[in-house]
């Protein structure tokens, strides 16, 4: 992308986020219940449950950005190869201004 294209894209994303946060958007609303369900599975170390989640389910429940949770699944699956883990720090906030649910987890070996 050229600098001008990058600037135009950034401006469009910022405007889309403002519209979403203001309730004036056609984007799918956030689904904090789905986010919490995802995080509960991560926290409990029940990663095999994700094998039952189809792409269509993730898109329907979590919206178009829900596929980003695959990085979480991969990270926690890698951690789990060393044994059981515990999540020590848990934070979640639905962040309309980011068009996403925002979560943090700190995990340590159990």
Q: Strand order within the widest sheet? A: 1-2
SSE class: alpha+beta
Beta-strand percent range? 15-25%
Number of helices: 4
Q: Which shape, going by the Cα principal axes?
A: elongated
Q: Give the end-to-end Cα distance, rounded to a whole number of Å.
A: 45 Å
Q: Please bin the fraction of helical residues.
A: 40-55%
Q: Uncertain spans, ≥5 residues at pLDDT below 50?
A: none
What is the H/E order? HHHHEE
Indicate the mean pLDDT.
94
Radius of gyration (CA) equals 16 Å
Number of strands: 2
Biggest sheet layout: 2 strands, antiparallel
Q: What do you see in this structure?
A:
There is one protein chain. With 110 residues, the protein is of the alpha+beta class. Helix content is 47%, strand content 19%. It is built from four helices and two strands; from the N terminus they run H-H-H-H-E-E. Strands 1-2 form a two-stranded antiparallel ribbon. Strand 1 and strand 2 form a beta hairpin. The longest helix has 19 residues. The termini are far apart. The mean pLDDT is 94.
């Amino acid at each position: 992308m050229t600098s001008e294209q990058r600037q135009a894209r950034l401006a469009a994303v910022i405007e889309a986020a403002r519209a979403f946060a203001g309730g004036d958007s056609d984007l799918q609303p956030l689904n904090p219940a789905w986010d919490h369900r995802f995080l509960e599975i991560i926290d409990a170390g029940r990663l095999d449950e994700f094998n039952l989640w189809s792409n269509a389910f993730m898109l329907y429940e979590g919206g178009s950005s829900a596929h980003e949770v695959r990085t979480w699944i991969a990270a926690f699956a890698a951690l789990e190869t060393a044994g059981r883990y515990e999540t020590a720090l848990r934070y979640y906030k639905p962040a309309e201004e980011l068009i996403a649910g925002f979560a943090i987890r700190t995990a340590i070996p159990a």
